[in-house]
Amino acid sequence: MSIKEDAYDVIVVGSGGGLVGAYVAASRGLRTLVVEKTDRVGGTVAYSGAGLWFPGSAPLSRAGLGDDVEEARSYLRAVVDDPSREALQDAYLAAGRRLIDELEQNTWFRSFVHGPVPDYYASSPGSSPTGHTVFPPPLDVADLGARRALVRDSLPTERFGFDEGPLLSGGRALIGRALSAFLETGHGELRLNTALESLVVEDGRVVGIEAVSEGERVRIRATRGVLLAAGGFERDRELREEHQSPLTGEWSDGAPANTGDALRAGIAVGADTDLLDEAWFVPGLVHPDGLPVFHTGTRGGFWVNGAGERFVNETSPYDQAGHEIFRRHRTTGVRHIPCHWVFDQRQLDRDGIGFPPAAPPVAEWLASGALKKADSLEELARLIDVPFDALDRTAKEFNGYAASGVDERFHRGETPWDRMFHHIVPFPADPRQNFPAKPSPEWPNPLLLPVDTAPFYAATIVPSDIGTKGGLRIDTHARVLRPDGRAIDGLYATGNTAAAMSGRVYPGAGTPIGSSLAFGYLAVLDMAGATD
Which of 507, 512, 519, 499 has the alpha carbon at shortest distance from 72? Predict the structure, then answer.
């Protein structure tokens, strides 16, 4: 097969968070190419809420929260607890606020807004009950015009045909804005259906990529550098089994094309790696189609392992709950994959189940086996294969906590994050609407409804993720490093292609996408020669 050659200043591999970095490059007059493996842009970012954990940024100041960078730095130091990542943390904190300032000068990005999402480690120094997370505003589909067809749909739309209506929110809004801003610089080009195969190296420097584009092999040169922003390896069975057994990737909520191509390309040219055994874990609620969906904020009922016992605060931040399922399954000798969410008719009537929330009689859930129903806890125990005596003890203990309002074992409902879920009801179709309050005043803790009203139900929870978080090791300019710490000239990485600056923890809402944007920004500044 003949090879066609092209040349640009900057090549960005991947069109999720890397699309913002591509805009930053193109806005500086650098001829920039974005290559995307699939037929739509957005990757896992398009599935997300597009939160950006950016302490000290302008939206926080506009919300009256002031300059909170030093508190956030203390918080990061405490929760990550890894001196080797402190320089990356400092680079991240400096880049986030600068990037927001720059983006808000573009009419497509407009003004980001603060969303009050508490930091995930409430007891750590510097933790904020209102958080440091900012979001892009929703985007009218009409404003995008024909470009709307290029933006990946949300996960509920892809899985369940959910109608997003006339607005794009969250990740779709961020991607739609970034795509338009990028293309309208006059210096940006997008190639869909273009899969990275390898990096081109000359005299020790990465000078481009080889890819297959629409069935044609191409070699594309980059005079300033290549930024790998192609997500993680969450959908690659071989890599997941090697580093994260027994997980295989089929339960991931990451974009389907995230199979580690950029990771393998970096390793092939001598890159070091880190955290390959890690992911942005989340609990996954198995739906009637047999696959899980990211689940957070359990308001009623409790989870049990194979021994019929509770093992976690079911409303704890999703990464912590997901990690606990995975960790306990591997270390305790008790089955936690799957575990079961046990609740009763009262909770089902109040909250429904799944996404979009299904209300009674939830016939599809029952017919598929995703939901088990029984007239007694003893019968339910048989259906989910746990000891009845243990399940009965667990329910009685939990019901006692419901009566007092205090979860003495796992303290459910005591942190700002937990309390955020007291009044959440099914997500509104129009994201501009507020969530209406729907408390349960007859119980002292709305997150602890007793499980005592037949019939009883059990749903299945498995460890899912929103991407792997291990990848190529980078420095404070997002340059990819060799095992000896030297940078590979011309090669940069960000997002889930790079090992996370937050190590094995998830500090707050928007850390993954915030990292993708911040280190993509730092990479472009380095390529452009403007790192001060």
Answer: 507
Helix (H, G, I), strand (E, B) or coil at 125: coil
Amino acid identity for residue 388 in this structure: F
Q: Is 410 exposed, middle or buried (0-12, 13-18, 19+ CB in 10 A)?
A: middle
Tokens 């009419």, residue located: 107
Residue pair 520/18 in contact by the 8 Å Cβ criterion: yes
444-465 b/e (C-beta count within 10 Å ≥ 16 → b): ebbbbbbbeeeebbbbbbbbbb
**Identity of residue 295:** H
CA distance 203 to 183: 33
Considering only residues 423 and 337, tell me which one the structure prediction assigns the higher pLDDT. Answer: 337
Instruction: Report pLDDT digits (tens) over 471-507.
Output: 999 999 999 999 999 999 999 999 999 999 999 999 9
* Residue whose structure tokens are 């580690």: 260
Residue 338: cis peptide before it, omega within 30 degrees of 0:
yes
The answer to whether 382 and 494 have CB atoms below 8 angstroms apart is no
pLDDT digits (tens, 9 = 90+) for 316-360: 999 999 999 999 999 999 999 999 999 999 888 888 888 766 666
* Location of structure tokens 């998830």: 506
The rounded distance, in Å, linking the Cα atoms of 314 and 465 is 16
Distance, in Å, from the CA atom of 492 to the CA atom of 228, rounded to the nearest integer, reads: 6
Nearest to 55 by CA among 125, 123, 127, 110: 127
- β-pairing, 139-140 vs 302-304, is unpaired
Q: How is residue 128 written in tokens?
A: 């904020």
CA angle, corner 498, sides to 327 and 131, nearest 5? 70
Alpha-carbon gap, residue 63 to 55, rounded angstroms: 12
Query: In one letter, which amino acid is 323?
Result: H
293: tokens are 């969906």
Q: What is the largest CA-CA distance in the chain?
A: 74
From the number of C-beta atoms within 10 Å of its C-beta (0-12, 13-18, 19+), residue 83 rates as exposed
Residue whose structure tokens are 């007891």: 123
Is residue 258 within 8 Å of residue 234, measured between CB atoms? yes
SS3 label, residue 398: helix
Residues paired with residue 462 on neighbouring β-strands, in sequence order:
284
Give the angle 73-22-189 at the CA atoms, nearest 5°: 170
Does the pTM surpass 0.90? The reply is yes
